Amino acid sequence: MEKTDKSMNETIKETTNQMMDQTMIMGERLINTKTACKILGVSSRTLRRWCKDGFLPYFNTVGGHKRFSLKEIKKFLANNHVNSDT
């Protein structure tokens, strides 16, 4: 079942608002791996592979954790016609 853009945007907003670990860098909202996986509807293993293969840009924290730009996640979804079921 294909979701509308409005539904996808509502899901993204709801998911990111529920997560406590949100960061801002240079005016961009950054989300953690768990949130990115939920928005994209993929496992953490798939997300790590996409990062390694250069499909998704990310930032590393001082502790070595990945953070993703919400803007880039939305762009990735739009450009790759990924249907988020979450």
Automatic annotation (TrEMBL):
SUPFAM superfamilies: Putative DNA-binding domain (SSF46955). Residues 32-80 form the Helix-turn-helix domain. Pfam families: HTH_17 (PF12728). This is Helix-turn-helix domain-containing protein. InterPro entries: DNA-bd_dom_put_sf, HTH_17, SinI_DNA-bd.
